[in-house]
TrEMBL record:
Keywords: Membrane, Transmembrane, Transmembrane helix
Protein name according to UniProt: Uncharacterized protein
Family annotation (InterPro entries): DUF6056 (IPR045691)
Pfam family, one: DUF6056
Keyword Transmembrane helix recorded: yes
Species name: Pontibacter fetidus
Transmembrane segments: 17-35, 88-108, 120-137, 149-170, 182-211, 223-245, 279-298, 310-329, 341-358, 365-387
Length: 504
């Protein structure tokens, strides 16, 4: 913690502000969970797991569709829609948000080893959580759409927990305790690798990075080599699934090596352009309030005594490989659900690299009198980015305040009632009155709608129809477009004025 009086005051005020920002960020997303609904794959996968036993699903999907042996094949069997429980579906999103924020706090508290106060630790966790929600490419797929968050978000949480366990392994002195920790890490690695291709890349490069850094550590080396071998075997099982290559046949532009390398390099550079500005502002606050105190108190911690060039290589190669894998497999850019994972690694990888750099060059900072003015200015920029009208956080508040989320919830509940109680075989249902962007991914379509970006969305209709025991389900008319926040607020204001004039 800073020792100068003005530094101490700034540190105290900043902690309070960041905790308030964290609560401000988390609140609307927790409330929105009460308005969330199953979408798209949730229905078709629920039908699959109702009708087929696990071994049949594993055989069919591993051979003909995907190597994701943990998420799509295994974890989807806890889909709340298998039992038709909308309440549990919503509770799952709430728990996910709590688990995500809790996993950030857990790994930070493990790594910092009580060098930060609980207030400081909470404010740092709030800073990272707010940054993640602020720029998350697609919040709906990140926290509200079961089929995507079970595949992509849960592995992120597992990765943070696994890394905390690996850190505890290094702190253990008893060989039996070390075996327990490395065994848990191996199980976590196997689950992460079997969840999705982006998580596979992160798990592989991270375990490889940790192993390489500690090759000269005779006590840790055999354990880490075991973990690395387990990770490699799991990667082989996931990558060599016949279903992966069968699925690639649906993407004629896939398999182009040179194009994939060039495109992945371009997307790696684009990541800095898209995401770096708010992170830079937060980084200045981090250096002043957290980085320098940590560098002084954990100066003998091996975690941060790593060659900065190796850290940079690990960071860039991981981002490049995540983009490359998808470009090579499909010939396309990563979809928002995949970008969610890339941004997750970009954010946490950036701050790890930043702390390594601070630790390396701490003598320069300690020899310099640091004014809180730059950090205060950076904090102001960060706060302005939090309240900017078109970001994810503001959108969440607009979806609630405008009534979009409530109207969406009401319309879908009415649709479920109709589909359950009607004896129609070919059912026509009303379109949604509004689209709350924060929790919406996709819906069924009308007969008149054409394929979107060349993709026939009637597959969602088929899944919903099968779930409710109908032959066909269609919208009576297309859903309204997703509106930007300013348009939504203007329309909400006009609607309120009309109601007031009618009352008068």
């Amino acid at each position: 913690m800073p020792t100068q009086p003005q530094q101490t005051r700034f540190y105290t005020y900043t902690n309070r502000i960041l905790i308030a920002v964290g609560l401000y960020t988390l609140l609307p997303f927790l409330i929105l969970a009460f308005y969330s609904h199953p979408q798209a794959d949730d229905f078709s996968f629920a039908v699959r797991d109702r009708e087929l036993d696990y071994l049949t699903v594993f055989q069919q999907y591993y051979n003909y569709w995907t190597g994701r042996y943990f998420s799509t094949i295994t974890l989807f069997r806890i889909n709340p829609m298998i039992w038709g429980s909308l309440s549990v579906y919503r509770l799952s999103s709430i728990l996910l948000l709590i688990l995500f924020s809790g996993s950030i706090y857990f790994i930070l508290s493990t790594i910092t080893q009580k060098t930060l106060s609980k207030t400081g630790l909470t404010s740092l966790a709030a800073l990272l959580f707010a940054l993640y929600l602020l720029q998350l490419p697609n919040p709906s797929e990140g926290f509200y759409f079961f089929s995507t968050y079970a595949t992509y978000q849960l592995p992120n949480i597992m990765l943070l927990v696994m890394l905390a366990i690996v850190y505890k392994f290094f702190q253990a002195r008893n060989s039996w305790v070390k075996q327990v920790y490395i065994g848990l890490a191996a199980i976590g690695s196997a689950a992460i690798v079997g969840s999705n291709e982006m998580a596979l890349v992160i798990a592989f490069t991270t375990v490889a990075f940790i192993t390489i850094v500690n090759l000269k550590n005779p006590e840790a080396r055999p354990y880490l080599l075991f973990l690395f071998v387990v990770c490699m075997v799991c990667c082989f099982i996931a990558v060599m699934a016949p279903g992966n290559y069968n699925r690639m046949n649906e993407h004629p532009n896939g398999g182009k090596l040179i194009w994939s390398v060039v495109y992945a390099g371009f997307m790696t550079g684009l990541s800095f352009y898209r995401w770096l500005l708010p992170i830079l502002a937060a980084s200045i606050v981090y250096i002043y309030c957290f980085g320098l105190p940590l560098a002084d108190k954990v100066k003998h911690n091996r975690l941060f005594q790593v060659d900065i060039r190796l850290v940079l290589l690990y960071f860039l190669v991981t981002i490049f490989l995540m983009n490359f894998v998808f470009a090579w497999s499909t010939g396309e850019r990563p979809t928002p659900r995949l970008e969610n994972v890339i941004y997750f690694f970009f954010l946490f990888g950036w701050f790890y690299g930043l702390q390594v750099a601070i630790t390396k060059y701490k003598t320069f900072f300690s020899a310099t009198t640091i004014s809180p003015v730059p950090a205060a200015f950076a904090l102001l920029i960060f706060l302005l980015s939090i309240v900017q009208i078109d970001n994810n956080i503001s959108t969440a508040y607009v979806d609630l305040a405008s009534g979009k989320a409530a109207a969406y919830d009401k319309a879908l509940n009415q649709r479920y009632t109709l589909l359950r109680n009607s004896d129609c075989a070919e059912c026509i249902v009303a379109p949604l009155p509004a689209i709350p962007k924060s929790i919406y991914f996709a819906d069924i379509v009308s007969r008149s709608e054409k394929p979107e970006n060349g993709i026939d969305m009637t597959w969602i209709n088929k899944g919903v129809a099968a779930y409710f025991g109908k032959s066909e389900v269609y919208l009576a008319a297309p859903n309204p477009p997703v509106q930007d926040n300013l348009t939504t607020l203007r329309q909400a204001g006009k609607s309120t004025l009309k109601k007031e004039s009618v009352i008068k």
